[in-house]
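Let's practice the habit of predicting before peeking. Look at the sequence and jot down your guess about where helices and strands might fall. Then scroll down.
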Amino acid sequence: MQLKDLILTFSQLGDFILDENNAELIKQWSYATRNENAWFTEDNVKLALNNTAKYYLNKEQLENFVVANHIETNISPKKVGIVMAGNIPVVGFHDLLCVVLSGNIAMVKLSSSDSILMRFLIHKIFEINPELKELIRVVDKLNAAEAMIATGSDNTAKHFEYYFSKIPHIIRKNRTSVAILTGAESRTHLANLGNDIFQYFGLGCRNVSKMFVPKGYTFDKFYESIEYWSTISIHHKYNNNYDYNKSVLLVNKTPHFDNGFLLLKEDTALVSAISVCHFEYYESENHLKELISNHQEKIQCIVSKERTFKNSFDFGEAQSPHLNDFADGVNTIEFLKNI
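Done guessing? Here is the structure:
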């Protein structure tokens, strides 16, 4: 299939998602999705779909992506297995898009936590262009795969490495994201940081789970700026996590801050529990760079005020990756071109 036809198909999917005339159908999708996974609320499904449409399925952006990555029509397609994660809605769609654009055949192993919404999208793709049934196959087993893209936890990654050791592969492990604060942030900056922390309940690898703050930093302004997120505690799963983690901190007499829906704890670890955000003090710019460097392999992305820190995103942008924001910094297209 010609690249121009693939671009047209995916851009039409994006148009479908963003078309207000389809809002009721999208709402029905979200209800079905929520029944499968209680973390996938209507707001989260809508956010994930809209971001996918805006940043992955825009015709001009797709054309630029193809040119920038020197993608050409593939005359000898390979069967590429995709083991999708299910921590946030349609998180595996970028891999699917890359495999198909590269002219290969996507053999998709859906996550049990995100099977319904992904099936809806794949079926819509087939409605738009039935020829893509030859390039996208939802499967239960990946024995026939000639290359593999798999995303999972650190533990499952070990199994993936073993099972797929004899074929080309990308194996992704646990990662998380961090924020760098200087104390000069406005309330708007901090409110946007709240989005990076709370969107998708903090379940994504691009969600901020830790803040690096200057020595002597106080969190009063931060807490005031994120107050609009207080309604997150209405969600029973999130609130159960908050109650549990608060109890653990209190029983262990661990020093912490608490505003009623987010617990802040000083901790050198990057990954924090749901409803908890870690923080660590830095004493100088060099000290900060050292702290970041020590964790580089586990950081998905960094957010800072107006992208002042090198290779960072602005506050509020963590969950809005563009086509060229490849997971783990590994260019999926280059991998697919060389299998």
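How did you do? DSSP finds twelve helices and twelve strands in the chain.
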